[in-house]
Batch of 3 targets.
Target 1
Amino acid sequence: MKARGSLPAVCVFLCWAVCSVSAVRREHLFPYGTRHGDSTLQEGDDETSEVLELRRPLYFYETQFSALYVATNGIISTQDLPMEKQYVDDGFPTDFPVIAPFLADIDTSRGRGAIYYRMEESPGVLTRVAQEVQRSFPGTYFTPTHAVIATWENVAAYEEVSRNSAPSSRVNTFQAVVAYDDTDSYALFLYPEDGLQFFGTRPKESYNVQLELPARVGFCRGEVSFLVFSRTEGPYYSVTSNEQTVKNLYQVGNTGVPGLWLFRIGNRFSFQNVVPAAAARAVPTAGLVAQDREATTTPDYAEVEYPDDPFSDPTNDYYPTVLTDSEFPPPAFPEYLEPGHSPNLASFSQTLLQPIFKDEPGFHFLCGITVLEPVLILKPSACSFSYFLLAVIQYSTENKETCARFQQTCSQNGYCTDYSSGFCCHCHTGYYGNGRHCLPEGAPQRVNGKVNGLVSVGATPVELDNVDLHAYIVMGDGRAYTAISQVPEPIGWALMPMAPIGGLYGWLFALELPHHQNGFRITGAEFTHYTEAIFYPGNQRLTIVQTAQSLSPENYLSMNIHIRGSVPFVVPGATVQMEPYKEIYQYYPSVITSSSVRDYTVVSLEKGSETYSYQLRQNITYRDCRHGPRTSPESQQLSMERIFIMYDKEERILRYAITNKIGPLREDPHPEVVNPCYAGTHDCDTTAQCLPGEGEQFRCQCATGYRGDGRSCHDVDECAEGLASCGSHSSCVNLPGSHRCQCQSGFGLSHGTCVGEIKTLSVLLVNSDIDECTSKPCHAQAFCLNSLGSFECRCRSGFRGDGFNCLPQSCESPSSGTRCEQHRDSLQGGLGPRGPRPAIGAFVPQCDEEGQYRPLQCHGSTGYCWCVDSGGQEREGTRTPPGPPCVPTVPPPTVRPLPRPDVTPPPSGTSLLYAQGQQIGALPLNGTRMEKAKASVLLALHVITFHHFLMLYRKVYWTDLSGRTINRASLESGAEPETIISTGLTSPEGLAVDARRSMMFWVDSGPDKIESCRLDGRDRKVLFDTDLVNPRAIIVDSASGTLYWTDWNRDAPKIESSTVEGHGRRVVVRDGIGLPNALTFDPSARQICWADAGTKRLECIAPDGTGRRVINSNLNYPFSLVSYANHFYYTDWRRDGVIALNRDSGQFTDEYLPDQRSHLYGITVCTFTEVNGQKTPVTCFLTHCSYRKRTVK
């Protein structure tokens, strides 16, 4: 075969060779014997093996079994066998489960043959079975995870040997392979052409009658339960009935190969009886790869000539098109290729190909990717899978890639190594990846992506149009948090069971057990993950393709996700629960496969608890480097625990959280010692690597780019410390754990250097500057002026603005609004790229809700404040740093507004107050028992949505997320609400009031900061705006002057504290928390208590971090929490109610579900008494503190 080194590199798809095979030969049997790890059955006439415990259960017929037994008499059973006289001389069916490749009275005594058996998980064996199933059952997708191989070699029939007769020399050899995944089971029977020399055996009790029973071949389910106390004969399938049918075993076969028989023998969901392969189709049969009895060898393959470009698209000079099944080129190679065997292909010039896709409407399908040896690939075709081969493209020596030519393809944190056939990239110490992409060991990882697709929920199609996906993975324990935003409500509920969307990132960055590798070490940041889910019982199909598109400059993994298909309807408001599960991944060069079945439970008020399942098929294709030593294992097991799923219909966010661990297929169920590094129970910082030692010892080492003792690490600013080496025309930009050199505007990066003169392979660009104007960055009524390294936008004549936004000069804004509003709007400055903006340092007046000047005006830049009159003029002598409130010169009228019908006087005594939508409800307490019949609405505001609220001085304080304000209102009838803070808020959530100091504190999860001010809004200041990721709840202990707050930081949730002045910040709780939603202070026990929506626990701890205890570990979805007497009360988003829980016993005691079914938010406790005809809150437990109103005489 002549070399084709001048050909362009293309993907070559190979099918199997069509050849005439007379029969299966002994060397075609699956490898067996002690050197392949087989156990040997004891010699004898009626022996049964020790129980073969299956690492995963298999389905035989429709029943699940976890053990198999191999018997002398040519059978495999799912139970320990009875004495042979109860079945060996009887016909089918048997009364116990049987897989019978040759049921007869066999005897291996006195060394007459041997019987071998083993459990098998190697990809070579499993792939061979999968390929045979695919050929014989077209359209079936089967990726076995386990197989059991039993081989009867040269075994003899039982004979009664007399003194005058010698034993027969006739012996038989045959083999049975039972392979299965989480859904289906198949059996292969192999009979070599010289393997059957006797076809039956004589019954032991036939006396002098010359009777021979033909061997029974087939399958029996055994007896099954009938009615209540009865049993009846189960289904069975028989292959043989007489001597000729036994001879057919090696003469015919049902796969097109004489001696090779294949049967589908079980299914998880529905199975009536065994299904044989259909030999009538005359399926083209491949030659079988021989088993080398002494040592593995590479089989000889016929040489094949290929056309110059057999798959080229005439409209595309670079990418081949996707071939349909009928367009595959003629078969050329034998079928069963073990990993490491390479066909003798022609050498091709070297070209690195990225994954190639062909567009479907709104979707992409994988065509192929260059690999370095033949490998099984899964290809989607008409919403199902079929197999194809992707062959080697080998390269001639003179065109070999070397580090000298291509080192820049390696990561800046990696290095290049030359090998005899080419080069490979590897990561430096302290980094992990595939060499082309390297990340710092131990540092948390982020993923950003876009989701598109069309999914039918029931009969309703729903489109996902470029919605955001974000994931955050904590490398220290392998926990992956995934959030998809702006998901429409019908599909948001329905996609809750699809945890594999986020499960991919768990596999990529899983916690690694010794000698095992997570996905990123193998694939790096360029791969395609294809998933197909088939739901039962509705048979809906969903396809998900996730394409990794390298790392961003910040080391974020960029993803492109396409979803298409249909999913079952899930009742709105339902919850989805998944138990921990395991998946087995099989690793081949350039492709990784997995197959599993997942159960999930849907809990809803309408239908209660219902359990469903779906079958999951996955394959991951990536660019592999075969030139260097191969380090990835053939198979690994991914364990997934602590599975949390939620859809938030208000925010339209779909969330998954899963803890992932990658390790061996066989884990020690009772290990003596588990190192905290492998258990994920260490206390290393989230930006540190846990390094295991002896036993339970370990040490923490900050990740590359971070500094500290390992338990507390902070980012190293390479730019400020001069550790970066950015060249000319560039600036250093610090990143978490790293930095990057950013070229100045107008310059581009070439081989790590910012240059104005950029060269390609053969064209020299004469321009020394990048012309930004070509991208049309300016407004349509502006023109662009390019300059060296920059550009400028200018509005055209007749328009005004900054060039990014231009308005006609004649279109002045009409005079509208109050004097204050006009004054404010006139000072907003020119139009900028983001809309109106004030001039830098300018004062902009603040107007109240009615458009009048606020009496107190403050300068946003200087911080000085002064009082103004009704016309906005400064009152002399009032200018001061933020000072006392101003009193208007003209007092307002004393006429009180009419009583409002939506204010209800509070009940006397102690009540729980809770926020729900646009109202605050009151739930009276009788002791600690909720008096649900007396529940009422305390305050209703028809425009405002309460999120968190508190009560003090007969006033209710609350945060309004929709209005981005903090407000208060008096409980007196006719009182109007008042906005205290109206600017600078994005997502004000938790709110706390310090009655002793007349201060309030809040967290804002938008800019991630904690602020404080006086109760009237004065003295506002930022306490903390660093090291916060998602602050949620906040409380204050007035007695000690201590603040406590929770942070939902996905990679490191924590509870922190400081003084009310913002000093002495420290972490109180770091370990063992997930989503600390609610926080309260138990005054009697002097403990901080929190409810966690991730761990589902309510826990308490002393302020010094001691005495931690779990009150209850079975919460649903707590939102807010308050302590009163010996009880905790919390609002629950799963039940949409108030739940009561005894502090001492930890038991639930009561629940209240309001008639209005929607989420409940903040909760507090207040005691009201009658004072001068008015109900006054004498004691309010403000979620965190107590305050007693003093009597003024």
Note: The mean pLDDT is 76.
Target 2
Amino acid sequence: WHRSFTEMSIFSPPPGALYYPSVVVLEVCFLKSSVSPGDGMPKENSPFINNTDHDKGSLYDGKNLALFEEEMDSNPMVSSLLNKLANYTNLTQGVKEHEEADDDEGSAKTKKPVKSPALGTLIGVYLPCLQNILGVILFLRLTWIVGTAGIMEALAIVFMTCSCTMLTAISMSAIATNGVVPAGGSYYMISRSLGPEFGGAVGLCFYLGTTFAGSMYILGTIEILLTYIVPSAAIFKADKKEDEPEALLNNMRVYGTCCLTLMSLVVFVGVKYVNKLALVFLACVILSILAIYAGVIKSAFEPPDFPVCLLGNRTLKNHNFDHCLKTMEVDNVTVTTKLWSLFCDSPYPNATCNKYFELNNVTEIQGIPGLTSGVIRDNMWGDYGPNGMLVEKKDQLSVPALDTSQDINMPYVANDITTFFTLLVGIYFPSVTGIMAGSNRSGDLRDAQKSIPIGTIMAIATTTFIYISSVVLFGACIEGVVLRDKFGDSVKGNLVIGILAWPSPWVIVIGSFFSCCGAGLQSLTGAPRLLQAIARDGIVPFLQVFGHGKANGEPTWALLLTAGICEIGILIASLDAVAPILSMFFLMCYLFVNLACALQTLLRTPNWRPRFKFYHWALSFLGASLCLSLMFISSWFYALVAMLIAGCIYKYIEYRGAEKEWGDGIRGLSLNAARYALIRLEEAPPHTKNWRPQLLVLLNLDSDHVVKHPRLLSFCTQLKAGKGLTIVGSVLEGTFMTKEAENIKSSMTTERTKGFCHVVASSNLRDGFSHLIQSAGLGGMKHNTVLMAWPGTWKQATDAVSWKNFIETVRETTAAHQALLVAKNVDSFPTNAERLGEGTIDVWWIVHDGGLLMLLPFLLRQHKVWRKCKMRIFTVANMDDNSIQMKKDLQMFLYHLRLDAEVEVVEMQDSDISAFTYEKTLVMEQRSQMLKQMQLSRTEREREIQSITDESRSSIRRKNQTGASCSESGPSRPLQETQEEEVVPSNPEPHPPPCADTGPDRVHMTWTKDKFLTERNRNRAEANMGVRDLFNMKPNQSNVRRMHTAVRLNEVVVNRSQGAHLVLLNMPGPPKNRGGDENYMEFLEVLLEGLNRVLLVRGGGREVITIYS
């Protein structure tokens, strides 16, 4: 068969996987073979490549695809791949496997096979989202929000919050349909899209939000119980009116803790009971909503009778009196009512009463005038006020009293908190959360990529309609003073939304009670599993313990932590105080869902192929901006705290967390930002003010590929302090196939060196280091400074390779206009853990080559190792220089450079060349000449003989292969005899064997054995004559002067800086004549003799420090 696939892969890797294919159309050929398809379950990151789950024993023995048989273990056949895709079933997350484990306890140890997911859009997504979105705020606070904010501002609150969740649902649908979403739901989507740091931070915020949501639902449950069902069950009762709020909070704490304990036990015993009761709780929510709409319709033609008593324009608590009258006629006798007793000191008509009570009459109005009463006009705008402000009907006549000090003790309905618009936004927002319920059940769905977008968006649209219609209908049916009465005190303690419902307020009371119970149980069920998913990912080390649980996987430890955090919310005890807290955490989660979608869309990663097409990056950015705005609108204080918590978690994961590569969008963003920055850096060379040493550290490895001088990495770390570019390079002798860099990377980690590792495989070290100097870095991020160690054993080396490589490296850095730092005695340099005490860093400024000598001590002193060291600068003056003026000029120069350093000018007096210097130069040249003679007499001759022998072997081999009889060589002889008697001179061009049919232009010249011995003896005699001439040599005058400088300068430096922690010295350049390279090494050795830590510095030919700002 032949089929064309328009996608590179049917199975999508995790969202945001950064893989850029070069081919889009894939031609697949299916051929019949004897390989049985594998049945391994797909893994998260690489489901089929390198999959080791299939049977290793069944070897491929077919004929059609034998060319690929050696790769079958790592790259499966397409037929096997498609078979795995067809049989793929994602394990259902949530409670199904835990239920099966519970059912199997005590009987068989084998688990039942997991059934294929079969939930559709309605049951699997729409109804769970509906149940999670509609909840406690709708029943307990929406009427109060409408009365306090007014219809217009309440609609604005609903519109903002529902727009936020709708935009988030669009972004979530795009992410959820871009591949399979396993267990973890929203946490999985965010972490795989934004990386482990953001994923862990937002995942824990989402966990905290879900946990505090459990607190809010439990507080709602207790509020319904103690306020509307059994008020007499209160343990703490207030003797005075001003003590009532505190008593209510204490009751909430006691009953809330008991309820939390009971719910935690239910979840611990078995979550299957919670799952079975979910349908009951959903039915309660739906019935309550229907009862509200039925009551609204009924109020249009038959409003319910719930009178409200007003004293003047003030609303009275209708608890302790039956009649809204001051006095009444009983058997033709005027008697006072219970209301009179509340405002007067005695029940008699001549009693002393409250002044406001005396000046105003009581009136009775209907709490629910009905849909057609026109009360909507009075409820259009808000009525905010401080804590303790009385609830008043504005258009009612009233005579104000001068003394209002006793109002707080009177039975008036008053605000229990200070109200303002932003507070209401924070309290209301939890009523629109719960949109993740569908994505959290993705494993239970028949077609998750179709059901999640449709079900979630339809649920949000439905609830948005319910909320908008409820705001309008509540404002059109209920009196304003009743709407602003949070606990229904004016209507005999009934639930305000309940008095509107039909057929009875108890429908709403009982329905909202069970709805809050169910929502609390589901929060206590979902939050521990979310924490368990985060813990099992291993990105937050201190959460590892919460990944464990009971034998069936039940997250016991996570449940205990969840209950503990939930108790914190219950101790707060106020629904209005807990709601803004969980709003922050949910908004943080939604913010990053939008950000993830926008990031993936803008980066255009090849794996970003969502099946849900109705998304756009602008919508995601709008959703993210709206989430951020709502956070600060609700509570800027809580918003900052939530961001601080998320930031701390982010930095902790970055510092201590496990390394995870999930193909996240943040990595893609980093790649794009790096590309953009590199292109910008390429446009112009860096200014002197921006110059900093970008280091290429050249490391030498021993025979076991272990770093010889790890202190070089420590010094690099101290010099860079984590800033700028660091490339750690090394050369491995061999081919590219043997290249490895693990030891270097581990050394970098040990020495805390932040940078890049670049290992080059080369046939010799010389070419390898040359390649590194030329090619390391990319674009504008190339090194400008080379750091290497001094070859300390160059004198003891049997060959000259080490110091020749060193000198050639010096020449190449100079030719490349790069600075060079050479550390002598680098193994004695301090480690990163050491702290040098009081001491100095001495700079010997001999020649000016860009100011790098001045900059390096300043950079070193930024690190804690060198922080206590002082900087001293020495410069050398000749006899004809004005040393006093030089010191003043140097001090002024350092002042303009903003460098703190002591300045000293050392006068170098002219003196005759000492006999010691003359003798040292002579010994140096004699040693050099002797090495040349020995090398010529031994090494070069051996190499020449070897090349002659190799040529002779190849000549004989070619002669034997042709089968021709050659006149010069006669019959075949042993190879040893051939090597002794016939030696063919080395020639760059190959010669054919001397055969009978060879023409005159192809004559093969040979040496006889006698001729070769004569020539060898003559060369030996010449070498012996050269050795005798060594003792008659006179030193070169140029070398004598250089040696004199090295000796004199060394004396001065040792005298002044022998006790310094570090000495920085100008490095003289190598000679232009390569014949004096070994003398150059001697000069440097003499210059540095007697000094412990030395850093030779050679500038790159440009200014690196400036006096200008």
Note: The first helix runs from residue 78 to 86.
Target 3
Amino acid sequence: MELYSVEMALAIAVGFATMTHWLASMVENREPVSNGNRELADVDSPASLLSSAESSSASMVENPEPVPEENQELVPSTSLVSSAAPWQKYDVFLSFRGADTRKGFVSHLHHELQTVRGIQTFKDDKDLETGAPISSSLLKAIEESNFAIVVLSENYAQSAWCLEELTKICQCMKDKNRILPLFYYVQPSDVRHQNGTFGDALTKHGNSGRHNSEKVQRWRDALHRVAGFSGRNAQDFQTERDLVEAIVDAVGSKVRPIETEFIISSIHFEPFEATREAMDKVMEALKDENITIIGVYGIGGVGKSTMVEHVGLEAQKKRLFPQVILARISPEPNVWNIQGTLADMLGLKLVDETVIGRARTLRKKITSGDRILIILDNIWEGIELTSIGIPRFNELKRCNSKVLLTTRKRDVCYRMQCQASIRLNTLTEQDSWKLFAKEARNSFKTSTFYNKARQVSGECGGLPVALKAVAKALGDKELDEWNKAAERLKVSQPPHPEDEKVVFECIKLSYDYLKSDVSKSCFLLCCLFPEDYDIKIEDLLKYGIGKGLFEESNMQNARDTIHTIIESLKDSSLLLDAKGIKGCVRMHDVIRDVAIQISLQFFVRAGCELQYWPRIDAGKGYIAISLMKNKICTLPAEHLVFPKLHILLLQSNIMNNIPVSSFQRLKALRVLDLSYTAISLLPTSFNLLTSLHTLYLDGCLSRISNISLLGRLKKLEILSMRELPLLKLPKEIGQLTTLRMLDFTSVCVDIVPSKVISNLNKLEELYIQCDFADWGSKAEGSEVKGNTVEESEAEGAREETNASFDEFTSLLHLQILKVFISDPKCLPTDVEVKSNWKSFDICICRDPSIRESLLDPSSPLDSKADSKALTLDTTMDTLPKWFTDVVTKKTEKLQYRNCRGLVNVLKEYYQGTLHSLKYLHVIGPSDKLEQLMTTITPIPNEPVFENLEELHLDGVNCLKELCVGELPNQSLCKLRLLEVRGCPELMNALLQSNLLKRLPNLEKLSCEEMDKLEYVFSYEGSEVEQSTLTELIEMRLENLGNLIKIWNGPAPCEIFCHVKTLVVFECNKLKNLFTSDIAHHLHDLEDLSVEACLGLERVIEASEETVNDKIVLPKLKKLALKKLLKLTRFYGSTGSATNDEECIEFPLLEHSHVERCHIFNSPAKDMLVSMMNKQPVLIPMQVQREVRETHQL
């Protein structure tokens, strides 16, 4: 009874806490803000922070325990839908014509998806009246869906509503793997080319007068596009039940992957004696049926996180736990985000809007599974598992699942009721020395030097994080420095070796050995961000510029410097690479703790879930305050008194106003970040921030009506106003004559007044990719007077003239330009001074939707800002000569989008002088491009596209051949990647002899969605040149319905000898992949995946003379054979019997998958299926179309 009362009390307490959290969230923000929408970049670094930092002691200061940012505390998901991706409410959106399918097929399909498989599916249950506009709720549902099924029935195109749905689906789900077309008793060719009822319906829409021609064309484009995707044809199935099952299986494997491979972030792992001992104990506990919760404890920096990651990997490899999921916990846990991470790794969508509801869904998912290992890393004070959705002990035991947690404190293991508490000890003296010597990379030639190094190693307390930091700091130093370091560490040693002061002194020593004050400042800046946060290097750059760290440098030189510093900090083990995110770094939580202690003049409460402004002692003389990533509603009513404050970071709070007097006493402030707050007014005291150098106002959700105050900030150098709801670039910005960087990306600017940009004569970087693109035009209707929609309506209209493009060319210091241009006519015919832009991203395109598709407001700027990109819907002959000299000659990345005048890319090469081009992408439709390159007209005998590395062709609807005629020697000699997709008129062979011999360095070939292509390669002549395809390592052949053979005619035996990965999907006329002669030389093949090739009879075809020759695929590791309905043997000839021995070996095969190969009954099949039953379930062959199911024959 007493135990029951205790449990009841706990339940009530948890419920009350959860309800309080829910009520607070209702007030503050209805839904959690995704990392993608809240990813910020704005902080700045102090040089002067070093003076105080160097004199700081090891004592703890007012700074709190570091707390990670709410969306950064968790490990990335390994499921198809990453935890960093925007939150999606539905798994699947069903698009269908109600009159055709609602009451029968669609109802059955919806029931199987929603009720039977638990896949959250949106199905609209209303029939729209003819002519009625599409519901906004429908469009929103599409945006909130991860996947779409489009039921293309006979009368689908008669509904404008359906066509609008389809257009929106294609817009939101640009990845073809997110759309599944179902051809419901219609022919795919009728859909693609709008024949039959589809053509009649589109014609009727065009003639009705209710829809303009642009809209009808968008509908046609959407139908053409979706018909090219891999889908299902109802006529291929005997019953509708079979069809429904096939669709549910296909969709379920994408949105509900049953098992995924556990991916670890730690690449280099060397288990020392202490680690091996702890790992062995953990593995034993995982095998013990009586143990459900296991705790690993040890001092910070001893390597707990790395160890449990590898335990998880080992447990999956040994099939103890097919599924391993992991979440990192912060000192103040964010339950919502923990739930999201665990759900993502389980392939589960959480649609509930309360923590309680999400916990219920997560618990149900875990208890319905089997053998799931849940790792909770870095628990600080204990957490109620049921509040997350982790089942109770008895429930976990019933589903054979366990919890593995790590913590710094043993008593946390007791509070979490761990049945096994395992200590991870520090390294032994010998292991410490082994790691230290490896990191120091010093031979220690004399005995004196060796002994001193051993002494220093011994002073590091056996902590890997300290050993690495000290070893790298002293590695190249002379003996005298080693003596000083040894004495310093010896003096600082506490009575107990595991005291955290050891860590502090070791990392402080590494910090002190940094070579410059700028390096030290950049290191300390990183502790202003939340724990486990991916810190953008561009943020560090801009904060450093704002603080004055790079006063003598231009921005590009400063960017080079910061990248050099970051690399040196990583080499010193003071920073880490971000997890798969380019342009970012991370700071180990232990090192961040030390950095906060070093920086006595920093007040850090980043990512602490604060709802109110904290108490800050003004007498401490803080120079930096970081309150980013909290839930603070407002600043204090009284003014902030911090006379020495240089950096104030308030981004990602929910404040909607700033009191008038807040900034009156911040006259030394140099860096201010208010991004992603909801402020509607800048306080009048804003104009007193006369020392401000860096200002971020990105994504402020409300209109900032007094934006003109910015004109008073005369020292401003960095101004970022991404995603602001401004209709007009404020004229007052023209007064900021010291401005070096201006970013107006993705704002709804319609007017850029003249003589604003040209006044910014010190501008080095300009990012102005926004709605505005009509340079030099009159402001339409002259209706915009104010900066915002509301101001314009209130103040009336007057005539405006937009800035001309000449204003850019007049900026002599401009090095980076990113801009949209609607028409080549916006460009001046000539310029007085030719610009020297080091980097540019210019789009010249009439279609606003194309320009919009190039914007990704959540993505960071290029990490080194060195791109040279050009997007065109026109040809080179429409561009002025100066533009060719300044831009196209330097262009490295060129895209043609809907360029209907494009005839021959060789002509473009010569007219644009594209000698520097590395990346070429042609995206259709195109009316005239029947041959990509033609040399029928004489061309100079010099190489063309000599530096091109990647060539992508996508949806070029009239393309019939890639090359006509002979190209000069050394043309295309650097091409590494060729990708051709959705070019329906390409026929015969993709790569013929005239092009094949020009591709000696081709490494990857992808060929998809072409109805007429018969061969991939064809070579005319007696012998293939020895250099042909010698570097080819990867081929992907997908949805090639007419492909007969990979190679036309006799192929050289060694032609594919270096291929490592081969994926073949939906090539229904292929009868085999290779002859035995070629198979004998597949020396490097590692991954082979063959799927849905309905005519395939054998993978390797032998003649009667060679059928008994033994074939060995010596490096094959992964093999998948799926839905091969005619496959009888892996290796054999036409006369081979099913039970004849197959002379085939796979000595290194690790993972195999055989599914729906109903007449495949040869000896090879028995071997493969046997292996399937023994191996862990992995994502096979790097196939990214879908995560495979665990269904076995």
Note: The chain has six domains: 90-255, 273-423, 429-592, 600-725, 727-775+801-867, 1060-1179.
